[in-house]
Amino acid sequence: AAPKKEFKLAWTIYVGWMPWQYAAETGIVKKWADKYGIKIDVVQVNDYVESINQYTAGGFDALTVTNMDALSTPAVGGVDTTALIVGDFSNGNDAVILKNKGKLADIKGQKVNLVEFSVSHYLLARALSSVGMKEKDVKVVNTSDADMAGAWKTKDVTSVVTWNPIVEEVMIDKAARKVFDSSQIPGEIIDLTVANTETLKDNPDFGKALAGIWYETLALVVSQSPEGKAAREAMGKASGTDLAGFEAQLAATKLFDQPAAASAFTKGAEIGATMDKVRRFLFEHKLLGNDAKSVDVVGIELADGKVLGDKKNVKFRFTDTYMSAAAAGKL
Amino acid sequence: MRMINRHPPKGLVLLLALLPFFLVFLTYVTASAIRLADNPADKLLPALSSIADAIDRMAFTVNARTDDILMLVDTLASLERLAISLAISITLAIVAGLAIGLLPYPRALFSTFVDTFSMVPPLAVLPILFITVGLGEAAKITLITIGITPPLIRDVAMRTADIPRQQLVKAQTLGASTWTLTLRVVLPQVLPRLIDSLRLQIGPAWLFLIAAEAIAAEAGLGYRIFLVRRYLAMDVILPYVAWITLLAFMMDFGLRILQRRAFPWFADARASA
Amino acid sequence: MRMINRHPPKGLVLLLALLPFFLVFLTYVTASAIRLADNPADKLLPALSSIADAIDRMAFTVNARTDDILMLVDTLASLERLAISLAISITLAIVAGLAIGLLPYPRALFSTFVDTFSMVPPLAVLPILFITVGLGEAAKITLITIGITPPLIRDVAMRTADIPRQQLVKAQTLGASTWTLTLRVVLPQVLPRLIDSLRLQIGPAWLFLIAAEAIAAEAGLGYRIFLVRRYLAMDVILPYVAWITLLAFMMDFGLRILQRRAFPWFADARASA
Amino acid sequence: MSLIEVCNVWKEYGDTVVLEQLNLSIEQRAFVALVGPSGCGKTTFLKMLLSEELPSRGVIKLAGEDLSAEPTADRGVVFQKYSVFPHLTVLGNVMVGAELQSQSSAGKLFGRMFGDERQTALGQAHELIAAVGLSKAEDKYPAQLSGGMQQRLALAQALMARPKVLLLDEPFGALDPGIRADIHVLMRKLWNDRTLTIVMVTHDLSEAFRLATRVIAFDRRRNEPSDGGRYGATITRDLEIWPKREPTALDAFKSGRDDPQPLSDELRDDPAKTGMGP
Amino acid sequence: MSLIEVCNVWKEYGDTVVLEQLNLSIEQRAFVALVGPSGCGKTTFLKMLLSEELPSRGVIKLAGEDLSAEPTADRGVVFQKYSVFPHLTVLGNVMVGAELQSQSSAGKLFGRMFGDERQTALGQAHELIAAVGLSKAEDKYPAQLSGGMQQRLALAQALMARPKVLLLDEPFGALDPGIRADIHVLMRKLWNDRTLTIVMVTHDLSEAFRLATRVIAFDRRRNEPSDGGRYGATITRDLEIWPKREPTALDAFKSGRDDPQPLSDELRDDPAKTGMGP
Ligand SMILES: Nc1ncnc2c1ncn2[C@@H]1O[C@H](COP(=O)(O)OP(=O)(O)OP(=O)(O)O)[C@@H](O)[C@H]1O
Ligand SMILES: Nc1ncnc2c1ncn2[C@@H]1O[C@H](COP(=O)(O)OP(=O)(O)OP(=O)(O)O)[C@@H](O)[C@H]1O
Ligand SMILES: [Mg+2]
Ligand SMILES: [Mg+2]
């Protein structure tokens, strides 16, 4: 692909990705794009799955996505994808919730409502294995996230696995008991900003601009100054809640507001172990392709250059290049 | 010669009818080939062979994990939901439609209400639907029913009101009560027209079925489509869409046949009206 | 006296028409009170006062952040999408419908294709649609258009074919070409009937609009409903649904008026047919 | 005592007076033809006789009693159109005239007859169908019949219910002249053979004079456009036909055509059977 | 030379022969009435004259030339129903007969006329509308007219296009007898005043003999049901009316009614105007 000047990033409403919206609205995006002489279009997509599909089909150059979905759809779909910003990991934002039952083990035999093949599904699998159960011990019912809060109110639904803000919404109910959440598997559900590897290779400025925008905005998000508060309030409103609601969600998120920390996490050893668990989960659910013979069909390159799986078919890469540059102030 | 008088020769008619399908097919194959040349793992427009594989996997291979044929299970689940909701809708439409079309009191009571109700977008009030009927089969059936019953009622009421006043007077002069008049004069004339309305609602019924199955389900054609959409498995989605289209087409065809067989008088009567 | 002959007195008619609405209202208020007594924070059936607050917030307060009134912005965005898609659909329906209904060659080419195409559930092919036309306004407009155009085309084609053969022959004996015949004889007779078909498609058009806005939009009535649905904010959803219903009702009403005003001959001609 | 008594009847729609001050008595077995310009209220008058409309003032009595407030089986009717049921065969259309009246539980619940009751009715139906010359078409649906055949069917259907009075609103208005002549013969025959009192509205004067025992004309006496509907029509002429027609005088009656054809199963208006010569 | 020549024409639908071996020539200014039993192929014959159907064998010539393969403006037509356009007023319906033929660019592009062209046509239209007695109804739509007025309008519309031949398929079949008589007078007047050749199908023999200069009867010569449609109808009679009717002989013509009324703007079939006395 030839160098180009105009780029599109798709984002969806989620606490860890709201900074993109704020950055676009307040001109931070334009500032950095101008600096590198490019144009970046930040597009909100309501439907998360659709945003991934669009990116996979080539409609976008960059995308906000979780580590698992980045592997299952674009990477498996042959779109070489690089995670250039590790934004945060879920630290309680995703949870298994039971109705009137206090122990995770009580889930046995129940119908569990969740978005099938999503990080919720993964969280359930991890939760079950923590108490020695298998997926066969429950019955998974695919339920759309938009309807999860309403679904919880019905008699038929006794357990759900979902993410924020729906978790908060469900927990308002007196009968709701959180029996497992992502803080028990820290660092495994990672929210990324990814870009098409080829585009990135030909246009490193695009990556630099994204990193620049991201960390300038995050500084505001975590700031205790009035500007910071105003920013959080705006992001809360835009995601359909208020300041308090937004801050509650932030609290359950391990946000890497410092590029150095993000870079360190990316280079760390845990991420390799996490990705291995994730790809095994996907393989078991036939999400690495129907004819995948082993977990190794798709290669995952880690920040240190090590590759999980097929070295000749690397489609998903972690890199600390841009985060490190941000940390070093070289953007 | 004027275009209006220029008729294609017999042999050409079938060919012409097939031409647009062929062009769509060709466009697909070409576009797919182009994308696949660029990225062999592309999922958006899979090659025909991948689609064939997917069909084989979904429709002709017993699924190891669940021990059944997925497409069969999905089809049966969806058709059952459709059948139940259509049965309920038809019953409601006949009862309410006849009452509104025929009897002044029910008409005064319900006609504005039904007209208004038919404008409410059902998808927007799903949460209320959930607390009323739960999340199970009942919710799906209710959604489809709510979606298609109001237009059916309106149609039946309109068709009932269309029956010439003279026939109702005539029946009364023959000694009919409101009940026997409904049973012997009005209902038999409304039924074949109900089939017309029903044919128009087949499309919406499928639409609501898919929407309902997208919300919460464990099987069904719409469920599968939305599930595999998560990882852009167009090789599954496309055959499912084709299959749904075929099913809808067959239902339409079946209704047309039913109308002809069950109401032999109707075609002539309509033509001479 | 037979039920069929028993008419409500004039004064009662309006009262009877309002009764079901009042009952629904009463049911809501009661159910809401019961739920709120149980859990004052319940969001599913908010009290009327909460709804009034939400209406005030959404419809009468300038949003500080964006400096506009949310409900107004949403309404304008949605209506614009609807208007554009309706304009496109009507144009397509007239062109394709007249061609299929009137001219043997286009009929042979397209009628089966349109029939088949109208059975494809548009919601199921959303991914393809979005990828073909992108996620912008075009996608939403295309979804609505794809959803309502095929039935419109079928209807126009049917209405065109219904024009008595004698009229077409007559026009030819008066010297009409295919084009002037279409313009002066067929089109003016099809237009008022197109309004009838259009009225039937208003419901589906809203449905597709909401579905499209649920996937990608930054404003719009359907967008807002889906956005706040995650938080189960029924105090916003309910007024929005009522507003959509009212808008749809007004569109229906407007079309009826238009039909009467623009085609003064139509009511009589239909009654005497 | 007259069969029908119309005493000082007015009919108004809002401010418009359609009919004013009608006084009329009709004897048993009369064949009354009602003529008058279009819009003068003939149909309105017939509707009042049917109880489909109520008089604004005045009363109508049938056999000495006030008319019931809604249509009943003592008054049969044939309209110009829509008199037969399109979803029933010829036999079904005639049978329904008995079935809807049946007081058996099957009749009340389903509007159908079973067993002996049905057999008796079937016999009568076959007879009536034969009388109107439709025996060969018993299994056909109305849409398969010509206009004339449909009107004959409507007559048979109305007669099946054994009404005291038969009301006809331009029953033959849409028929071709030749076919009309045939049906006139039939009309007279039916009137002759059964104890029937007939009130028939027609636009066609010659039809009125050819068939009826009495011709009544409605018209507005004052007809200034400036009246704006403040005055209605009323009876302007009332002629007894001379020589007086009696029910038994059938043989003396000649159809209006030069070569009246005998009434047979094969009337001219059967689309399948028609033959003609100049 | 005759205006219309029908040479050995056959018409078959699949295996069914509808018409066989027709030979006929019709002179300029003839008024031909076509009679025959229902289903014998009268309408089919008219359709061939219109080029709506093509003969299976044989040729039809108009003014010495083979008929064009589709309907054209040299042959006008009035059907029993659906002859006028419901969405146009009386004036619009007549004007359209000129507008659709206009060779100006507005005419070809929009089927409309402007300026002088329009004024000339308007004059002719008013004249024709007056000729058929509809002047007072110029702004009404067909649904507001009675059946008789609609057929008169259809005549005016057809004449506006100045056809060489006027083809009528049971044009008055659905009208009441009194109204029919009036329109017969009009028909003869139009035929008399304009250079018209008329071919009219009718079911009504008296109408045929009253109006036409020549009556042609179609019938099947062999009529065994066992033939199963292997034989079609053909011309069985061809009568010149005697005394010979000439276009100028109008004064000698009397309508079929006892009191022929003068043709005026206010014909009997105007629903708004009707007045009658016995
Ligand atoms: N429901 C109604 N409301 C107001 N006016 C009515 C109503 N029904 C009839 N009329 C008026 O009453 C008058 C008489 O109508 P009616 O149909 O009885 O006339 P008619 O003599 O049967 O005419 P025709 O010979 O055309 O059948 C007409 O002017 C008509 O407009
Ligand atoms: N398109 C067609 N295909 C097959 N048969 C046809 C077709 N059109 C007409 N016929 C047959 O041709 C015969 C003549 O029909 P046509 O309508 O010409 O009769 P007609 O003399 O005008 O009858 P009527 O007096 O009832 O109008 C009929 O038997 C009819 O069934
Ligand atoms: Mg009348
Ligand atoms: Mg004919």
What this model shows, in words?
The complex is a heteropentamer, with 1 copy of chain A (331 residues), 2 copies of chain B (273 residues) and 2 copies of chain D (278 residues). Chain A is α/β, with parallel strands linked by helices and 331 residues long. Chain A has helices spanning 18-26, 28-36, 48-57, 67-75, 119-130, 148-152, 166-171, 197-202, 204-222, 226-238, 243-251, 259-267, 270-284, 321-327; strands at 6-11, 39-44, 62-66, 81-90, 94-99, 111-114, 139-143, 159-163, 176-181, 190-196, 253-255, 299-301, 307-308, 314-318. The longest helix of chain A has 19 residues, at 204-222. Chain A is globular. In chain A, 56% of the residues are buried. Chain B has a single domain, classed as MetI-like fold (Orthogonal Bundle), CATH 1.10.3720. In chain B, helix 2 (48-59) packs across helix 10 and helix 9 (221-229) runs antiparallel to helix 10 (234-262). The longest helix of chain B has 38 residues, at 178-215. Chain B is globular and about 75 Å long. The mean pLDDT of chain B is 91. By secondary structure, chain D is an alpha/beta fold. Chain D has a domain at 86-162. In chain D, a hairpin with a 2-residue loop joins strand 1 and strand 2. The chains are: A alpha/beta (331), B mainly alpha (273), D alpha/beta (278). Chains B and C meet through helix 1, helix 4, helix 5, helix 8 and helix 9 of B and helix 1, helix 4, helix 5, helix 8 and helix 9 of C. The structure holds adenosine-5'-triphosphate (ATP) (2 copies) and magnesium ion (MG) (2 copies).
Order of helices and strands of chain D: EEEHEEEHHHHEHEHEE
Silhouette of chain D: globular
Strand proportion of chain D, as a percent range, falls in: 15-25%
The most extensive interface, with participating residues per chain, is: B-C, 66 and 66 residues
CATH fold-level label of chain B: MetI-like fold
CATH class of chain B: Mainly Alpha
Quote the distance from N terminus to C terminus of chain B. 33 Å
Tell me which CATH architecture of chain B applies here: Orthogonal Bundle
Oligomer: heteropentamer
Please give the radius of gyration of chain D in angstroms: 19 Å
Give the low-confidence spans of chain D. 250-266, 272-278
**Biggest sheet descriptor of chain D:** 6 strands, mixed
- Counting DSSP E segments of at least 2 residues, the number of strands of chain B comes to 1
Global outline of chain B: globular
